[in-house]
UniProtKB/TrEMBL annotation:
InterPro entries according to UniProt: LRR_dom_sf (IPR032675)
Name of the protein in question: 6166_t:CDS:1
Organism in which the protein naturally occurs: Cetraspora pellucida
Length: 380
């Protein structure tokens, strides 16, 4: 009764569409006002994997497409490798009828994707669009043009996707997303040519960029020539950071995150290429040899605006803290240092020495904390 007659129901989250069996028949929703008509958020994991749940799921989705037109956020996750045409049609219809949709997530769409994309036509209010494990090979280049009609999208995510081609990119080329400021291309979503093409196309408006498993001088040149407004960069540097140095030295970044997966690729030369505009630097999953880290910090003395330094490395080392103490004496802007350790194995004597140096660091006005393997933390 509550679901059918509710005056304030704004959000429905369904973790498994088998749960829909607990709902009243969908035909009843339309008999009550306001019922579901005021729904603002819809999140639904759609399995439709057996004959019992599939008809109920389809009935529910069909009802939503006729009742709800004011949803602001939709998150659809398909757990079938080949969702039925009827299922995709009802989901598409839900998207089509929304008048002020702002946030849309597609997850694990591995078949029949084209109709979901074309449902975005004239979605002028859409601001955030995320594709997770979406197969773009099921979308024709002509259909993907619809993305460019979402002119107010400012955040666009491609995570673990596949199947996009240069032909798709060419369809997008003449229709720029003028308001796009935040782009994420993660976990090898597309090959290097596709990544380079997308950044070349959308780079002039980008302020925030996330890249994963990328190493190419061509991309570095694209960043230099097309991403002059970039203020935040998050990049995986599994095979070394040299290709990024020319861009970094010319950039005006405020926030830089570099992830290296505990390789020995850390280069102290990185420091001298960091821009003077930098306020937050994160070095995650690095193996930081004491000598290289000390040289790196000596090359960072020009970072007069640096406020936060976040470091993820293998295990606590006294030499790291000694180098930081010396660096802080020449970096008056620094306010916080955070260490994240993969392994937190350290003897009591070494830990006491580290704590003593941390106390000296805090006396210099810098907040210092560290997190260990077992989520152990000490806040000094």
């Amino acid at each position: 009764m509550f679901i059918r007659t509710s005056k304030n129901l704004k959000e429905i989250i369904i973790f498994d569409d088998n749960e829909l069996a607990l709902f009243p028949p969908s035909a009843m929703f339309a008999k009550y006002e306001p019922g579901l008509s005021q729904l603002v958020t819809l999140e639904c994991n759609i399995y439709a994997h057996n004959n019992l749940s599939a008809p109920i799921t389809l009935e529910f989705l069909k009802a939503l497409s006729t009742i709800c037109a004011n949803i602001r956020k939709i998150d659809l996750s398909f757990r079938s490798s080949n969702p039925s045409e009827e299922l995709i049609t009802f989901c598409s219809n839900i998207i089509k009828v929304q008048k002020k949709l702002k946030i849309l997530h597609f997850s694990q769409v591995l078949g029949n994707t084209g109709k979901l994309i074309t449902a975005l036509e004239q979605k002028l209010f859409l601001e955030y669009l995320k594709f997770f494990k979406v197969d773009f090979s099921t979308i024709s280049p002509s259909d993907i043009k619809v993305l460019t009609q979402c002119r107010n999208v400012n955040s666009l995510r491609f995570i673990n996707c596949r199947g996009m081609t240069l032909e798709h990119c060419a369809s997008l080329l003449n229709y720029p997303l003028d308001n796009l400021t935040d782009l994420k291309l993660l976990s090898g979503s597309f090959d290097l040519d596709i990544v380079n093409f997308l950044i070349d196309m959308w780079g002039p408006t980008l302020i925030i960029l996330y890249l994963d498993r990328i190493k190419t001088n061509k991309l570095s040149n694209t960043l230099i020539n097309r991403c002059s407004k970039l203020k935040s960069l998050n990049v995986n540097v599994r095979d070394g950071d040299e290709f990024l140095l020319p861009f970094l030295s010319q950039s005006s970044l405020i926030h830089l995150t570099m992830v290296s997966y505990y390789t020995a690729s850390f280069s102290y030369e990185l420091g001298q290429h960091l821009p003077t505009t930098l306020k937050h630097l994160e070095l995650k999953k690095y193996y930081l040899a004491s000598e290289s880290f000390d040289k790196f910090l000596k090359n960072c003395k020009h970072l007069v605006k640096l406020e936060k330094l976040t470091i993820g490395t293998t295990s606590p080392m006294l030499d790291h803290y000694l180098s930081l103490r010396e660096f802080i004496e020449s970096c008056n802007s620094l306010k916080m240092i955070t260490f994240y350790y993969r392994d937190f194995f350290i003897n009591d004597m070494e830990e006491e020495k580290i704590k003593a140096v941390i106390k000296e660091i805090t006396n210099l006005g810098v907040h210092c904390k560290y997190y260990g393997y077992e989520d152990r933390s000490d806040d000094y």
